[in-house]
Automatic annotation (TrEMBL):
This is Beta-glucosidase. Residues 1-16 form the signal peptide. Residues 73-82 have a biased composition (Basic and acidic residues). The keyword Hydrolase applies. Gene3D superfamilies: Glycosidases. Residues 59-72 have a biased composition (Acidic residues). GO terms for molecular function: beta-glucosidase activity. One of its GO terms (biological process) is carbohydrate metabolic process. InterPro entries: GH, GH_1_N_CS, Glyco_hydro_1. PROSITE patterns: GLYCOSYL_HYDROL_F1_2 (PS00653).
Length: 664
């Protein structure tokens, strides 16, 4: 067994999403791959994606996707997307609104975190106090009319935004007494304005109730006792349905519980509420991104419940090493309770749809010229297993009412258990539609020991959190060198965030995975609720490219190993360059959207929408304003007016829409 501990592995998995920084001098060690493996490429008229009819809910199976399928279906899109395809862009309240303490808004965990730990947020201008928080952000609170103008350029017919809980309920707890809510009037007026302005502009609102900015009041109850948080959330949701539901017909309860909990509780340094579940306070190694992370975690939000060894003192509280697991559990229950309120009290009359948005990378079975057919089969099995851990953990409960068997079995007693009542509430709670945020992909295989034998899955006796994934993810990143924390390793060319790589087939592979797993269970299809990238920049090293190239060459698909040229690299000081003329981002959208169309037109996947992340450059969490995901440029540090300037990609997407979606 390789020496890196499973524990480190798990942390690294968490890090993969948002916090990974790496050493630019790490050079990719090559993987000795040679001849392309092309034998099994089907002919042009075969169905390119191999979807098995069996529903693999309770057994380990492969993902059903042939690597060769990706290539072979390349030129086959037929039929445009339908006229009612949901098309638009996404943002989140804390990332764009600003006005953090105006007109009665209360404090969210993100205010709390950024104000307490400004050094945990990247900034190139620390003399600017707002550069490390969302105090001002894009000031969409005052400039929403300009945001609408940007949506128009991309021909958006939907806009995904989120509602800030503390803006509506500054005290945290929503209450209705004698028919009157204790709500902040100004907050309500703001969202009324947003919704009405959207509708006046023929843009359908898609509202997320919770995008990581919960009220500080819920910081403890999020993990230590499930009831306060889940009840509070359902009450807050009830107000939103009651007041906005006459106009909002697309509700997303929560955004990406995995990132929220794993980054916020397990990883600590980069995301609120800055817990370090299971790990000693630490500074990230190889910090090239300019973060100067403070050691320590925010134990002040509840240290007294822990002993020195971070074990829980009282019963009924999860041990600190499992806070992220419990946070996830509670968010899922909170989601189900909110859906229940909507279904019981509002849906019939308001006729809207409600679902959850989860994230998660599609898992691609590893293959190179040394991979035997048996190994490939095994890697496919592992791709499904890894997907159950990375995605199914969050998507199974709202679809089928419980965690995947593999997760329960391998986590054993470390896995919280849903009560029968919770299971019943959860089951089908995202059957109206499933929201999926997709960015990158991971390689999947069974990990090998130094001597070439396979690392074995944990036995029943060994099963627990720490052992649960030990045979699933290779901890040496396919030879990318020391100093990486990238497990499971990502695949594709390096975009402008350490965790984000361009591997467009991921969207198609993932859509097929969901579709097969939940066949017949999703009534209004899957909606891509986020997808996008930051242009490559100098803050993130590109050590991924060489290995990716070898991988794709080995399976006869060299064109997927695309990379970028020096001139694609974004430079803050060059407005004439790729900051505004964002060619890499345009190519990203082209490739992902092509794969989405293939999934729709060739694989018959019921995909109903696509929201690009993001409409605007905005507060990119621990990366502050230094990492730009927007299709609209804002000069955060120098322009007091925060003028919105469309980048090339915004217009490009408008054109894509006209050409690829049926026009009425
Ligand atoms: C998602 C998140 C967004 C945005 C995006 C790009 O995980 O929901 O808020 O930050 O990633 O990093």
């Amino acid at each position: 067994m390789k020496t890196l501990s499973i524990f480190t592995t798990l942390l690294a998995v968490s890090a993969a999403k948002k916090c990974v920084v790496r050493n630019p001098t790490d050079s990719a060690k090559t993987n000795d791959v040679k001849a392309p493996v092309t034998d099994d490429i089907p002919s042009d008229n075969e169905t390119p994606v191999n979807v098995d009819e069996n529903t693999p809910l309770d057994k380990e199976e492969d993902s059903g996707i042939e690597n060769s399928d990706i290539e072979n279906s390349e030129d086959k899109p037929k039929g445009k997307l339908p006229a009612d395809f949901k098309w638009g862009a996404a943002t989140a309240a804390y990332q764009v609104e600003g006005a953090w303490n105006t007109e009665g808004r209360g404090e969210s965990v993100w205010d709390h975190f950024t104000h307490l730990y400004p050094m945990n947020v990247e900034s190139s201008d620390r003399s600017n106090e707002d550069s490390t928080n969302g105090n001002v952000a894009c000031d969409s609170y005052h400039k929403f009319d300009q945001d609408i103008a940007m949506m128009k350029i991309m021909k958006a017919n939907h806009y995904r935004f989120s509602i800030s809980w503390p803006r509506l309920f500054p005290e945290g707890q929503a209450k209705k007494v004698k028919g009157k809510w204790n709500v902040n009037k100004e907050g309500v007026e703001y969202y009324d304005m947003v919704i009405d302005t959207l509708l006046e502009n023929n843009i359908t609102p898609m509202a997320t109730l919770y995008h990581w900015d919960f009220h500080t009041l819920s910081m403890k109850s999020m993990v230590v006792g499930r009831l306060p948080f889940t009840r509070r959330f359902a009450k807050y949701a009830e107000f939103c349905f009651e007041h906005f539901g006459d106009r909002v017909k697309n509700w997303i309860t929560t955004n990406e519980p995995w990132v929220n909990c794993v980054s916020g509780y397990r990883l600590g340094p980069g995301k609120a509420p800055y817990r370090c579940t299971g790990e000693a306070p630490r500074k990230l190694a190889n910090d090239t991104a300019g973060l100067d992370l403070l050691g320590g975690c925010s134990y002040e939000i509840g240290p007294s419940q822990y002993t020195k060894n971070h074990e829980a003192l009282t019963a009924n509280r999860p041990p600190q090493r499992l806070e992220d697991v419990w946070c996830s559990h509670n968010i899922l229950i909170a989601h189900a309770k909110a859906v229940n309120v909507y279904r019981k009290k509002f849906q019939k009359k308001q006729k809207g749809l409600i679902g959850i948005t989860i994230d998660g990378e599609a898992q691609i079975p590893w293959q190179d010229d040394k991979t035997t057919p048996e190994e490939l089969e095994n890697n496919k099995k592992y791709a499904n297993l890894a997907a159950e851990f990375r995605i199914g953990w969050y998507s199974d409960p709202p679809m089928i009412g419980d965690y995947p068997e593999s997760v329960k079995q391998r986590m054993s007693k470390d896995m919280p258990v849903f009560t029968d009542e919770e299971k019943a509430l959860l089951k089908g709670s995202s059957s109206d539609f499933l929201g999926w945020n997709t960015y990158t992909a991971h390689w999947a295989e069974q990990v090998k020991n130094e001597d070439g034998t396979y690392v074995q899955p944990p036995t029943d006796e060994e099963a627990n959190f720490e052992n649960s994934k030990r045979d699933m993810w290779d901890d040496n990143c396919r030879g990318r060198g020391e100093g990486w924390t990238c497990i499971p390793p990502t695949l594709g060319s390096q975009a402008g965030s350490s965790w984000n790589t361009k591997f467009a087939p991921t969207i198609r592979v993932g859509l097929n995975w969901f579709s097969k797993r939940y066949e017949g269970l999703i009534k209004n299809g899957i909606v891509i609720t986020e997808n996008g990238c930051a242009q490559p920049n100098y803050k993130v090293a590109r050590a991924n490219d060489e290995v990716t190239k070898k991988y794709f060459e080995s399976i006869g698909q060299p064109k997927y190993a695309d990379t970028y040229k020096e001139e694609d690299i974004e430079r803050e000081d060059n407005l004439e360059g790729t900051l505004m003329h964002d060619t890499y981002r345009i190519d990203w959208y082209d490739q992902y959207l092509k794969n989405l169309r293939l999934a729709y037109a060739v694989d018959n996947i019921d995909v109903r929408g696509y929201m690009a992340w993001s409409l605007l450059d905005n507060f990119e969490w621990e990366n502050g304003y230094e990492t730009r995901f927007g299709m609209t440029y804002i000069d955060f540090y120098n322009d007091k007016e925060m003028k919105r300037v469309p980048k090339d990609s915004l217009e490009h997407l408008g054109q894509w829409y006209l050409e690829n979606v049926e026009q009425n």
